Amino acid sequence: MFVTSSLRALAAAFNPHRLRSAAIAVLAAELASCTLGPAYHRPSSAPPAAWRTSLEQATATWPSTDWWREFGSPQLQQLVLQAQRANDDLLAAIARVREADAQVTIATAPLLPTVNAGMTAARQRAFVPLPGGGTLTYSDFNPEVSASYELTFWGNWAARSAAVATAAASRYDRQTVELTVMASVANDYFTVLELEDQLKIAEDNLASAQQTLKGLEIDESVGTTTALDVAQQASEVATISASIPPLQQQLRQTLDALAILVGRTPQGFDLAPGQLADISQPQLVAGLPSGLLARRPDVAEAEANLVAANADIQQARAAFFPTIDLTGSGGYESTALKTLLEPASRVFDVAAGLTQPIFHGGAIIGQYRYTKARYTELLADYHKAVISAFGNVEDSLVAVRETRDQVERQQQATDTAERAYRLSQIQFHAGTINILTVLSTETALFTARSTLAQVKLAHLQAIVGLFNALGGGWQR
Q1: Which of 35, 229, 266, 469 is the most buried (most CB within 10 A)?
Q2: What's the whole-model pTM score?
Q3: Which domain holds residue 278?
């Protein structure tokens, strides 16, 4: 009975105005006649009630989509905009979105009949078996419209659902890639500033050490100090000088990496000088854990892949059902163009066939088992993405709090080292201490300044990590 109604719908499809309504009627009838199992339901994942680490802020907030502006650096903002336009990883992710959209179009096509139009014209000569024999020459004109529809609707609809979910996953992947690229740009830019600070510290210490060496050489010439004191200071000068080339190398390599992130060749790429002291430190607190999963594109991508896998199971189950093939053609056929469109010249045919899978060497059951195992795998991936998201935020909160405390303590240590160095200089020239004490305070000051620059960088990168862990302002 269903085949008969489908054939009627297919025959009606030869009227262009009724093609769409007929196809929809057939699809609706099939959808009502079959089920492929339970629909997808999001796995339960109870979020924690609160974050373990607090940043001692009164109001919980989420980052904005342009979170990098909160660092107050016009140069960083320009780099991020360049990366959004030209980063190759991001451009590839955008192309993958277009690929996935095209796959949705491809997967949707089998849900509708295939319609073709053609025209044949032939001139033929045939033998006429009549008394006296002879031949007959005639023309044959045959314009025709044909349509076919394979009623594997259950599997076709599931395939389209899988393609739609995969397209959604590709969009979430694009957002994840963009967030990762933006964080990488910020981290590399801050690293450039830290290395420039380190170079300035090293150059200032080198200048100070060279000045001390010159003073010792004068003192040695008048006999107020020894050659050993001069040699020790000369060794300190050489040590500080040797620390500069590695810093210059790291700076150039970081600039090259930053150039690639913004889609530029390293040759000729450079930045205006800057320092970490010019960067603002945003005050950020994580929102409630219950809202995190809707703000993480990687979690959304993992779930979209799970939805696609569920649809793949339905498609695999559909392979157990019979396939109904409907074909039909209609048109005109005549031996003369002048009579081609007359009612007597109309021709048509409609046919139906049913195919039920019986034995395929285990391929169908194997594919079904594969899709179920694949779903189980992606379910584990989704669970890992969820708990990893909460773990990322906790780690980032700890990093922000502890590096902030470390910056404060290291600043105190640096201030103390500067006072000690100034006092040692005064006492050395007064003759109350020897050069070894001066060298010791000088080395301590150099180390303290270098460590302070490192912990400032660590704190800024921890803030970037927290922006990243909170989804960078993205929302489902």
Answers
A1: 469
A2: 0.81
A3: 45-112+171-321+363-469
